[in-house]
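[step 3/7] fold_predict: job queued, chain A
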Amino acid sequence: MRPARYFKAGIFLALLLLVGLTVHNRLPVNDAQAYNDTTYGQIRLFSEALSIVQKNYVEEPEPDDLIRGAIEGMLQSLDPHSSFMDPDMYKEMQIDTEGEFQGIGITIGIRDGILTVIAPIDDTPAFRAGILAGDQIFLIEDKPTKNMTLMEAVKLMRGPKGTKVTISVIREGSSEPMKFTMTRDVIPLESVKVRDVDETIGYIRIAQFQKTTASEFEEGLEKIRKEKGSLSKGLVIDLRNNPGGLLVSAIEIADYFIDSGPIVTTRGRLENQNFSYNAKKAGTEPEYPIAVLVNGGSASASEIVAGALQDYRKAIILGTTTFGKGSVQTIYRLDDGSGMRVTTAKYYTPSGRSIQATGIQPDIVVNNAAGEMAGAIPREKDLEGHLENDQVEKEDLSGEPEPTPVVNIIPEDPGQDAQLQRALDLLKGLDLFKDLKKAGESG
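[step 4/7] structure written:
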């Protein structure tokens, strides 16, 4: 996500509101041709509609609500990731990148008009309660989620630590709706976790990309080196169920393993939206075998890392197809303290691939069958109004969902984690092959 820029829309909206308040007479039907496709003509149309509502609605509406509703509807009509944030929501968004918030801990999206869980965040109330990726949320407390925006849903589910919230979900394969009552907690959003899953091979998980992710990752690598002696036997980087986060943090992680060339490029309509983020030689890790784990919950910034390492052949990507969010959102602050999240560009991997609506295809496909259910994983291509991939024929994205498990579960027990075990076996095999090759050369 690029740094927020100050978007001076307040004056425009004030003028728009003034125009709306002074237009009282509807144009005759015969004059409808006076409207054209210009912005000015459309503003006249909007001001006419605004005036009619203000004058004739059964109850006197609040001008602020009308204008904000209009902005919200405008952004919703663009794509699933453009949205309006009132001042409270804008503050919440800023908190997300700082490292903690208070709530239940889930990543959500809109699929076929339905609020759907993309992934629960590790070790949170939602995770512990058993909320699963693919669950369709139809009630938050007693409020139906139909036509509810993502920001509205987030605002309802967040709240002070210790307070309770109930959500009702429909789950694939379950005959009855399921109700979960959870106690909100501080969601620390620990970005990086190191686990001891093997005697010789390191394991590091990135849950999402925040301001501190790069420094935490570096500390994690040092911890592994101290415990294992070195990373020469290999490293597993787990990006499963990582919903993304800050673009700059993803670039910093990829930069540890790439010494030169582009990590990711962005392309938009405007010249200043076209940019290439290049790797630096300083601080590059020495070469060692790497396996990167991904699944349908790996989105955005995590796809940038996986795509860059795949393109440069710095790692083997293992798991299932990623989410496919290949778009850039820029945050604009409005004069009243509210904000807009606007899609301004698309991501491209170093080789020029767009991942929009297609995702990263793993080098080795491995499903985590334990405890999972059959169905279609909600991905970017399933979201209503998603941007098309300009490198792929539209009909190619409209086929049947892949025959993969619906729920992106990561088993707590490493021994039950089929994807992790396959990655460990692969790295051990590469190490054995390296030793045999050396023995053959010396012989």
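[step 5/7] annotate
The first strand starts at residue 2 and ends at 6.
The chain has three domains: 2-61, 100-187, 192-383+391-431.
exit 0
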